[in-house]
Amino acid sequence: MDMAVETSAGKVDEWLKDLVSACSEYSSENLKSLFFPDCHWRDLLAFTWHITTFSGPERVVPALLSAHGDFRPVNFRRRGTPDLVTRGGRENIVEGIFEFDTDIGKCQGVVRLCVDAEDQGKLKAWTLLTALDQIRGFEETVGAARPKGEVYGRNFSGPNWLDKRHIAVAYKDREPEVLVVGGGQAGLSIAARLTQLGVDTLVVDREERVGDNWRKRYHSLVLHNQVHVNHLPYLPFPPSWPTYIPKDKLASWFEFYAEAMELNFWTETEFVGGRYDESKGRWNVTLKNADGAVRELRPSHVVMATSVSGIAKLPEIPTLSKFCGEIIHSSEYKGANGRKGANFLVLGTGTSAHDIAQDLHSNGVKATLLQRNATSVLNVEPSAQLPYTLYDEGHSLEDADLIATATPFTPLKRAHELLTEEATRLDKNLLEGLAGVGFKIDREDRTGWQFKYMTRGGGYYFNVGCSDLIINGDVGLIQLDDVNSFVPDGVQLKNGEVIPFDTIVLATGFKGMEALVHELLGEKITERVGPIWGFDENKQELRNMWVRTPQPGLWFIAGSFAQCRIYSKYLGLQIKACLENLIGIARN
User: Fold this and answer.
1) Confidence check: pLDDT of 569 > 90
2) What 3-state class would DSSP assign to 288?
3) What stretch of H or E contains 134?
4) 62, HSE (Cβ side, Cα atoms, 13 Å)
5) Residues near 118 by Cβ (< 8 Å), separated by ≥ 6?
6) C-alpha pair distances (Å), 340 with each of 330, 336, 362, 363, 488
7) Across 45-89, where does the E strand assignment appear?
8) Alpha carbon of 204 to those of 70, 241, 274, 581: distances in Å?
9) How large a percentage of the chain has pLDDT more than 70?
């Protein structure tokens, strides 16, 4: 073993031993001496039953001591060999994974140790992650705990596996414990987690087939991040799959995944609305099938898995009503077939706008972007993939996910500032080319595209070719500042020129999740829950995501494939804990 690695392993062991000793003795001073002044502790259910972050010794130390008394952690042990890494601009960090047990179950964590030059070179914790992995007595039925199934060769005249699946999916004799609304990556991920925890779960989606939320998008769509960060839980994509997955290939995988993971799934089923029965602790929800038939269900929990943004945003755009041609929202755009020679104006410069413009151009349609606001642009390779370099460090997917969650907000923000600086350097020629044709680059963006996604759900574009088309003049560009008004046949510029268009595509984004909650569950529940997505008042965690909300039995899951894969685990554990009366069903 390399001497540096061996020494690092000993240092992690020593730090864990000192942590246990300080907590057991309830020694604030000894515990404080193990942490940097700018330390952070992120807990994923292990000590708090919440997803929460404590920053600074004045918050970390008392919270750890209190949690130690409540959860009684024991048997801390290092797993594997630590790595010497650079994280968030800090070099020579000793990063170690460890395991431990509590009264609740099996847990794991990540500690990052740095040398404190002001304290005789002592290694101290900069960040600490603790995460619940399994609830004792309610472990997932995977691996060695897989179900037995039917015994081969048994003379059995009753229903076979397929018969039982049909019975399970029909829900004629029972109510689901959990109803998941939405069958995209979020809905599939949480349904798979809950099913492996033995929770009776039904997914409903209004599309005709599983995967249609991708299948029905425009013809040329592929994912813009790489295959190795986009796996769903338990069942990774085959190693032969392309780096960037085409939308139809992904849609077929969703369909296969639901079948392979034995998920109870109702297609062509719309969640019309619901109300919560406080006295019985369950929901009364109304579902409507494609033929108009109505079904009432009474699940204990409802998980909204309808994406970060589900309702089209149609802002008031002065004079747009004068336009006499076709106007559609980007969510309605299915492709450019049969429109060769037409002239499209795409209002917006985010990802959807660029992708639609490129798709139009590739199909012989003249496309022009109308830019309203400055936009962050970076090349899909390597710049857009920089946040995922952790997944190239040789860790298993599970360990990489654990390490990814171990970076709290403040260090994460610094890391993305550095990544944004590097992306700007790498993409210098691209950005200069865009600026040269009048495209407005968001020069105020310091934390990059991922923070834009987590705060506003958009405002960026990964260049997969459309930026080059703009620079070359193959895709047109108009600035809203140069527009005088819309006119019946197009746009009139301030210089008097009229540019004709046949169709305007509004790539204006989507309303937040609160709008969907208001539409489906009403104003009272919307106000009780409060804001969804974006960072909380302490700017540490996303609001109401993957955790108990103030509304009993109502949960939210959304985000990227990686976010859904990672946080579906912790959402599933909380719902299971609620059903087993280990925790309450609402956040205080």
Assistant:
1) yes
2) strand
3) strand 122-135
4) 3
5) none
6) 18, 7, 10, 6, 21
7) 51-55, 74-87
8) 38, 28, 14, 26
9) 97
Flag whether pLDDT at 57 surpasses 80: yes
Q: Which DSSP symbol is given to 344?
A: E
DSSP assignments along 441-469, one per residue: B-TT--SHHHHHHHHHS--EEEESSHHHH
Are 568 and 233 in contact by the 8 Å Cβ rule? The answer is yes
| Cβ-contact 301, 179 below 8 angstroms | yes
Q: Is the dihedral of CA 193, 194, 197, 202 positive or negative?
A: negative
Alpha-carbon torsion, ordered 464, 355, 404, 302, to 10 deg: -160
Residue 1 has pLDDT above 50, yes or no: no
Pairing state between β 498-500 and 90-101: unpaired
What is the CB neighbour count within 10 angstroms for residue 65?
16
Q: How far is CA 166 from the centre of its chain?
A: 31
Q: Which long-range contacts (CB under 8 A, 24 or more apart) does 246-249 make?
A: 246/221, 246/222, 247/214, 247/215, 247/217, 247/221, 247/222, 247/223, 248/214, 248/215
Residues 112 and 346: their CA atoms lie apart, in Å, by: 47
Q: Is the pLDDT of residue 408 over 60?
A: yes
Q: What is the mean pLDDT of the chain?
A: 93
- Find all residues with CB under 8 Å of 38, minimum gap 6, and list them: 55, 56, 126, 410
Phi, psi of 98 (to 5 degrees): -140, 165
DSSP codes joined into one string, 164-208: HHHHHHH-SS---SEEEE--SHHHHHHHHHHHHTT--EEEE-SSS
pLDDT tens digits for 302-326? 999 987 656 888 888 999 999 999 9
Q: Which of 134, 79, 130, 129 is nearest to 104 (CA)?
A: 134
Is residue 411 a contact partner of residue 40, using CB atoms and an 8 Å limit? Answer: yes
Q: pTM of the predicted model, to two decimals? A: 0.93
Q: Of the candidates 31, 35, 44, which has an alpha carbon nearest to the alpha carbon of residue 406?
A: 44
CA dist., res. 464 & res. 355, Å (int):
8
Give dist(CA 545, CA 530) in Å, integer.
11
Q: How far apart are CA 542 and CA 448, in angstroms?
A: 17
**What integer is the mean pLDDT of 385-400?**
92
At 272 the pLDDT is 96
Task: Give the model's pLDDT for residue 155.
Answer: 60
Q: Which pLDDT tens digit goes with each residue over 177-215?
A: 999 999 999 999 999 999 999 999 999 999 999 999 999
Cis status of the peptide bond prior to 552, with omega within 30 of 0: no
Tell which residue, 541, 560, 543, has the closest CA to residue 462.
560
> What span, in angstroms and rounded, lies between the C-alpha atoms of 274 and 521?
6
Q: Are 459 and 422 in contact (CB under 8 A)?
A: no
Element (DSSP H or E) covering residue 6: helix 3-24
Q: Summarize the confidence of residues 56-73 as an average pLDDT.
A: 92
* Token pair for 393: 């460090």
Residues 6+ apart with CB under 8 A from 378: 384, 423, 427, 430, 449, 460, 461, 462, 463
Q: Please name which of 410, 413, 409, 387 lies closest in space to residue 400, comparing C-alpha atoms.
A: 387
